[in-house]
Design goal:
The structure is a single chain. By secondary structure, this protein is α/β, with parallel strands linked by helices. It has one domain (5-66, 101-307): 3-Layer(bba) Sandwich (Glucose Oxidase, domain 1), CATH 3.50.30.50. 20% of the residues lie in helices and 21% in strands. It has helices at 5-14, 34-41, 153-156, 170-180, 197-200, 220-225, 251-260, 271-280, and strands spanning 49-51, 73-82, 91-98, 106-108, 128-129, 132-133, 145-152, 167-168, 189-193, 214-215, 230-233, 263-266, 284-288, 299-301, 305-307. It has a 9-stranded mixed beta sheet, sandwiched between helices. Helix 1 packs parallel to helix 7 (251-260). The protein starts with a helix and ends with a strand.
């Protein structure tokens, strides 16, 4: 089913191709300038540290909905093995992990999705091969560090958790900005809280339930107009799911990654950070969420750290 005219019009409005040159492969991460990094560092007052990554284990968030995207499977390859054969000398224990690079808390690379022969900045879709992403791989992003802002949409709406399937609008983002009491400036990284990760963490076995709340197509121009560098949410799907329309499947992914070149993050655990922000009224902080440099990676696990 072809995408509708409304989608293509929105794509034209937010397209960033060529903005940072014809060879650019990192998109809006270019907006994180040294000034933005200093702006983030200036937010550190108490030194309180919040790790935002989920535990890496086979009890991860993947529920089998995406073929091949397996939770981390860790195997021991050495247990107290003596280097020289003498156990009284140096002994080592080692392990190995097999996992989907988008299995846990992660960033998507700009090459993660394509449509209609389109890859960010006009790079050829054929550059994605069995070797991975020849262009726009996650390794091209050397750092994501600067000012982070928590937009607690759930708390701004007076609830602890948004209902499943709730489509976040630009007005919801404005309400969350008002709650945060901070202006969103070019180069900021937005952490968007729906509260739905509480479902994921509720039992011994991690697992999402559907539908999920998240950004809708009604937020895309908002992020573009504010020159946001990257956005991460606390859900598996990132955007609202099921999708807003049957003739637009995961349109926010397409618009953010392909048209805007804006990196997306998923499965960020924002609960402790959100509670602290609500307690002290400070929703801006220094954020280090630098990707692991998997060469040609379509995504990467990450353990983001917010420092207040």
């Amino acid at each position: 089913m072809p995408l509708p005219p409304e989608f293509h019009e929105l794509a034209r409005q937010v397209n960033n191709w060529g903005r940072w040159g014809p060879d650019d492969e990192i998109g809006t991460i270019n907006l994180i300038t040294p000034e933005v990094v200093r702006r983030g560092a200036a937010c550190i007052e108490t030194g309180a540290v919040f790790a935002l990554g989920l535990p890496l284990s086979d009890d991860g968030p993947q529920i089998g909905a995406i073929k091949g995207r397996v939770n981390p499977l860790k195997t021991m390859v050495a247990i107290n093995a003596p280097l020289t054969g003498d156990p009284s000398e140096f002994c080592t224990s080692d392990d190995v992990v097999v996992m989907g690079l988008q299995a846990a808390t992660h960033w998507d690379s700009l090459a993660h999705v394509t449509y209609d022969g389109r890859l960010y900045n006009g790079h050829p879709v054929e550059s994605i091969t069995t070797d991975g992403a020849g262009r726009c791989g996650i390794d091209k992003i050397t750092a994501i560090a600067g000012r982070g802002i928590l937009l607690d949409v759930a708390r701004a709406k007076g609830v602890d958790r948004l209902a499943g399937g709730y489509a976040i609008s630009a007005e919801d983002l404005d309400a969350a900005v008002a709650l945060a009491g901070v202006d969103v400036l070019p180069g900021d990284v937005i952490l968007l809280r729906t509260g739905q990760i509480q479902i994921l963490k509720a039992g011994d076995k991690i697992g999402y339930t559907f539908p999920t709340s998240g950004p809708s197509t009604k937020t895309v121009t908002w992020f573009h107009d504010h020159d946001v560098a990257a956005v991460a949410t606390d859900t598996l799907t990132y955007e609202v799911y099921p999708c807003e329309r049957d003739d637009m499947q995961l349109p926010v992914h397409l618009l953010h990654l392909v048209e805007m070149g804006m990196t997306q993050g998923q499965n960020f655990d924002l609960e402790a950070l959100a509670a602290d922000c609500a307690a002290d009224g400070r929703y801006a902080f220094f954020l280090d969420a630098t990707p692991q440099p998997f060469v040609g990676g379509l995504g990467t696990p990450v353990n983001p750290v917010a420092i207040k």
